[in-house]
């Protein structure tokens, strides 16, 4: 993902620092994030790091939110494409797989999982993590709605959980992105074929 590549000198200092933090986390985990290493990775002075971020908590929070906003931008583009071009379910699932997994298994995709785990240990980061998942849920609901899936709002969180779980599996095992695409198709087709339980008042058939 381009957001994780080495930043060019023209990139604002604050963004270069955040990009460096995400790269460090992806490579060696949150414990490896030190001001000295950030400065080296970002190509900025040590004073610049402390000037832009007074605490490590602020640094981690802003890095997580930056990553999520970049991801949300990609998903928003996908949702708009679904709405404007009337993509088939198969095409939407394939594009979702590309957005979620990218073209390569690299440290860039590990950073958010490291940050979410860290949020589990540090409640000060949980608000940022909650904002992240809310953004994913909202965008998933938009895509499902564009595809004509009933109960899109109810299925959104499940879709997000499926994508993230399979992405983690792919990172851990090297399994192909096709697994994610197949699982998304199974979920979406099942949701599209099933009448709305909320509308009927009856539980969905098993």
Describe the structure.
- It comes from Streptomyces alanosinicus.
- Residues 11-71 form the HTH tetR-type domain.
- GO terms for molecular function: DNA-binding transcription factor activity; transcription cis-regulatory region binding.
- The protein is mainly alpha-helical.
- The chain has ten helices and no strands.
- The chain is elongated.
- It starts with 12 loop residues before the first helix and ends in a 6-residue tail after the last helix.
Question: Briefly, what is this?
Answer:
This protein has helices at 13-28, 35-42, 46-52, 56-85, 89-101, 111-121, 126-146, 152-173, 178-193, 197-200. By secondary structure, the chain is mainly alpha-helical. Mean pLDDT is 77; it is low at 1-9 and 196-206.
Distance between the termini: 39 Å
Assembly state here? Answer: single chain
**How many helices does DSSP assign?**
10
**What are the low-pLDDT stretches, counting only 5+ consecutive residues below 50?**
1-9, 196-206
The Cα radius of gyration reads 19 Å
| SSE class | mainly alpha
β-sheet strand percentage? under 5%
Order of helices and strands: HHHHHHHHHH
DNA-binding region: 34-53
GO molecular function: DNA-binding transcription factor activity; transcription cis-regulatory region binding
Protein name: TetR family transcriptional regulator
Domain HTH tetR-type: 11-71
């Amino acid at each position: 993902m381009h957001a994780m590549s080495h930043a060019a000198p023209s990139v604002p200092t604050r963004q270069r620092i955040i990009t460096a933090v995400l790269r460090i986390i992806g490579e060696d985990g949150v414990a490896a994030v030190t001001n000295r290493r950030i400065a080296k990775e970002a190509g900025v002075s040590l004073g610049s790091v402390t000037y832009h971020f007074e605490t490590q908590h602020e640094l981690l929070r802003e890095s997580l939110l930056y990553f999520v906003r970049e991801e949300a931008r990609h998903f928003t583009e996908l949702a708009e494409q679904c709405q404007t071009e009337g993509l088939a379910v198969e095409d939407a699932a394939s594009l979702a797989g590309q957005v979620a997994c990218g073209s390569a298994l690299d440290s860039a995709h590990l950073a958010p999982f490291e940050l979410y785990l860290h949020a589990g240990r540090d409640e000060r980061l949980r608000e940022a993590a909650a904002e992240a998942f809310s953004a994913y849920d909202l965008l998933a609901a938009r895509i499902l709605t564009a595809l004509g899936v009933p109960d899109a709002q109810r299925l959104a969180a499940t879709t997000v959980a499926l994508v993230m779980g399979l992405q983690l599996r792919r990172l851990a095992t090297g399994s192909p992105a096709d697994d994610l695409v197949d699982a998304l198709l199974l979920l979406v087709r099942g949701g599209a074929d099933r009448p709305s339980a909320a509308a009927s008042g009856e539980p969905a058939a098993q």
